[in-house]
Amino acid sequence: MTHSSYGQLGLLTSTLRVLVSSGRSDTSAPIEAADRASEGSELLAVRRQLVVVARELGELYRTERSRSAELQGALDKLEDAYLATMKTLAFVVEAKDVGTRGHHDRTHRCALALTQLVDPELAANHEVEYGFLLHDIGKVGIPEGILAKRGALTPEEWEIMKTHQVLGAQIVAPMAFLGQASDVIMFHQERWNGGGYPRGLSGTEIPSRRASSPWSTPSTR
Fold first, then answer.
1. Exposed e or buried b for every residue in 79-112, given b needs 16+ CB within 10 A?
2. What are phi and psi of 137, to 5 degrees?
3. By percentage, how much of the chain surpasses pLDDT 90?
4. What is the pTM of this model?
5. Distance CA 198, CA 165 (A)
6. Which SS3 state, helix, strand or coil, does residue 179 take?
7. What dihedral do alpha carbons 94, 98, 102, 104 form, nearest 10°?
């Protein structure tokens, strides 16, 4: 609303108060026809001005709603672009990791299906689903010689491979709209018996609404 509209609204409100108080100040005193006509004219003018102000308020509201919708649309497109970039990185990583070809999609499907059985409300959380989808995104930071190696990894190489959850969580952490996805990525290799990584958490130490590890196997990289 413009400053002039606020000014008009304030002036109209003051005028109405004066008119109402003048009409109630002395109900026993006779009111001259000329005074009544004058007040009636002023009230009519005030009513017309109020209609104008109401129209301006309505137009302002519609304009702000339109701007909000445009802003939300832009934010949605930006989020979609970020997510598409992350998905692309994940598929690039899988293309290089010959030992886990297809693991990306299988894990996403299995994780989502299991979560729907255990906690349907959690399964409907898009942040958690994004975490399942991007759980191995951190492998983009693992040297290709380790990632694409045929055969068993050396202990040193395995220690490097085990950093991919931390790297993945760091990659997605700045994207606020991914929310819990960062935690799913961080904890997806923790195991109920404490044999997982990176922290070796066990049982209830594992954030129960975040871990996606029940279908992980010791051979999973």
1. eeeebeebeebbeebbeebeebeeebeebbeebe
2. -60, -25
3. 8
4. 0.58
5. 8
6. coil
7. -30
Nearest to 90 by CA among 153, 167, 36, 28: 167
pLDDT of residue 207: 76
Nearest-angstrom CA–CA distance, 87 and 193? 31
Alpha carbon dihedral 209, 215, 220, 221, in 10-degree steps, equals -20
d(CA 50, CA 5): 10
pLDDT in tens, 18-70: 544 554 444 445 445 545 555 567 767 766 776 676 777 777 777 888 888 88
DSSP-assigned letters across all residues of 28-69: TS---HHHHHHHHHHHHHHHHHHHHHHHHHHHHHHHHHHHHH
In the numeric block, the tokens 């949605």 are attached to: 76
